[in-house]
Amino acid sequence: MRVAAVIPCYRVGRHILDVVRLALTKVDIVYVIDDCCPDQSGNLVAEHFSPDRVRVIRHTVNQGVGGAVISGYLAARQDAVDIVVKLDGDGQMDPDNIPVLIAPILAGTADYTKGNRFFNIEYLRHMPPVRVFGNSALSFVNKISSGYWNIMDPTNGFTAIHSTALREIDLDKIAKRYFFESDMLFRLNVIRAVVRDVPMASIYGDEESNLKIGKVLVDFPLRYLKNFFKRFFYNYILRDMNIGTIETLIGLFLILAGGIWGIVNWISHGMMEQETPAGTVMLATLPIIIGSQLLLAAIGADIHNVPSEALQKMNLPRPPHAGVRKPALAGSRETSPGKTGV
Fold first, then answer.
1. Which of 46, 158, 144 is nearest to 112 (CA)?
2. How far is residue 101's CA from residue 322's CA, in Å, rounded to a whole number?
3. The domain 3-236+310-335: what is its CATH number?
4. Which of these ranges, 41-45, 131-135, 165-169, 313-317, has the smallest mean pLDDT?
5. Minimal CA–CA distance to 78: which of 311, 327, 312?
6. Verdict on whether the full-model pTM lies above 0.90
């Protein structure tokens, strides 16, 4: 199988040459995406590597990490690459781990793999405490939103994807910036791709993260909520109606009915300065208890519904657009090292 690496570049001039050099020892071709980098990473790479194995794609407008990776995915899909690895250009991800990362895909047991820094506590000793807490919270929320209850560390950007899954995903719909990794998991669940975690550590040095915590707290929750409702509609209404559908809908109805009944009677009896009868309290409490139990059962059904059969083993028909380059993303241009072009 042909393996490629996609490396988005933004303010990584101090690390990018070493990352590309190490990546070339593990993959067949490297796509370096200069995302309007102030350090001119694309020119730097072009000066040091041959265009035969390193292709530079330049964005004239910054599109974020998601936009950069999508440009690399499009190029890899055009070149009929079998497995595409994504790693950052800041040196936090060790290219020597690429064989371990792609092993489940080569074995046919996964369509998409990603690093997991939470598997071994030793990996967390070098991670800043704020990142440990933030990633732990996002991991739980992402399980509910994406449906991959077997996955931790959703924002880990060290990933690999098989060409079958890459063909099935509509790349135009994926979030272009820092929600890219989480949105990617949602899109993978929609196409029923198998995702596996691969334990590995990250390397923390003098690099600075461009991700702002305040923006995450404001932007991410709404996106996660939106993806959850879309996933529920796709998997439990549109494509299939199963026990999880029934448990969720009846559970929500009972909780809402019990809650509304209780509040209305509590207010009405309070206005009349009367104690709420025990029977009325029970009529409000019982539906809430039963509804909560049904929702817990629905979560169990959702956990059991995690995709388990790899798409690459299903011999899916190639869609009409497979192997055909889509129109270039706005604000991007692709050049070979040492050349200029539009």
1. 158
2. 25
3. 3.90.550.10
4. 313-317
5. 327
6. no
